[in-house]
Amino acid sequence: MIRKEPKYRRPLNIGQISILKLLYKFRFATTKNIADYQGGVEKSVYFRLRGLYEQGYIGRNHDSEYYLKRKHASYYLLPKGMKVLKDLADFNTTVINSIYKDKVASEQFKERSINIFTICCSLKTIYGDKIKVFTKSDLVVFDYFPQPPPDAYIKLETDNGAMKHFFLDYYDLATPFFLHRKKIDRYIKYDEEGDWDVTKTELPVFLSVNENPTLLKRTSKRMAQAVDDSLYSEAKFYSADLDTIAKLKKSQEKAWQLAGETTFDSIEEILVKAV
After folding, report:
1. 148 preceded by a cis bond (ω within 30 of 0)
2. Which CATH code fits 112-273?
3. From CA 148, how far away is CA 135, in angstroms rounded?
4. Which of 24, 66, 71, 254 has the most CB atoms at less than 10 Å from its CB?
5. For 149-188, how does the pLDDT look when each residue is reduced to its tens digit (9 = 90+)?
6. How far apart are CA 258 and CA 164, in angstroms?
């Protein structure tokens, strides 16, 4: 039986458009991701997502394999949803061209995108409007960021009104470790060449969230070695594991380990050391 589309539908409301913008920003998201990031209720977000899905603005991943693995449904933009953003002039052509491929994206890319969103949600829950998150979709128009850019660039306003900057990356087990190593080395070179100087702000602190504690140890060791081997870089690399960050509720929680150190710091302590 073919479902008939109604002749008239109400224009998308602000809440629905905000969801389209988040899918542009993070590429894939669960209901919980969106609710956590917006500070809303999952039930309300679900109804907005369902409406967007039924009208063909977004796609959904949720088959029998998802049920077996107890994975939540994930959502992504479809061309109809992209057109809404295009009409609002709130898009970049390069990003849009990439998003067209999201319907056939690999499970690794979907999972990475959702985990990055989850990490940003945890930080947003703690800092609210004091934190601004920019993903690769946002950074593509700037030429002074590392290439390829970090998974997220974060600006955090401290209690005294100062602005602190962070580069955030997610390190997963599915990516060969030599690629993680190359990323770390690129960051050292980026610092040595002074590309960030054009912003006239201090070099951002590098935050890495690793899929598990074992990978954390490997990346942290490599980061410490890369800094030690450099003659000029004073980059600060802090690492944490995904499970810890996903459960983070307070800025005072000691979740981050400075490369080369054995103790853990809180975001508040990192801010003090970054002065």
Report:
1. yes
2. 3.40.91
3. 12
4. 24
5. 999 999 999 888 889 999 999 999 999 999 999 999 999 9
6. 17
Amino acid at the residue 130: K
- So where are the chain's domains? 14-105, 112-273
Query: Do residues 66 and 30 lie in contact, with contact meaning Cβ atoms separated by under 8 Å?
Result: no
Token digits for 68?
């077996």
- How far is it, in rounded angstroms, from Cα 127 to Cα 205? 17
Sign of CA dihedral 112, 52, 59, 85: negative
Distance CA 268, CA 35 (A): 25
Instruction: Give the C-alpha distances (Å, rounded to integers) separating 34 from 74, 75, 76, 151, 153.
Output: 11, 10, 12, 18, 19
Reported as half-sphere exposure (CB side, CA atoms, 13 A), residue 15 has a value of 16
Give the C-alpha separation, 119 to 117, whole Å: 5
Closest CA to 201 of 144, 270, 266, 259: 144
For residue 208, give the nearest of 236, 254, 168 by alpha carbon: 168
**Furthest CA-CA distance within the chain:** 69
Task: Tell me the per-residue pLDDT of 65-88, one tens digit each, with 9 for 90 and over.
Answer: 665 566 789 999 999 999 999 888
Prior bond of 146 cis (ω within 30°): no
**What is the distance between the alpha carbons of residues 75 and 119, in angstroms, rounded to a whole number?**
17
Phi/psi at 107 (5° precision)? -60, -35
Give the integer Cα–Cα distance in Å for 125 and 167.
Answer: 18
Whether this model's pTM surpasses 0.70: yes
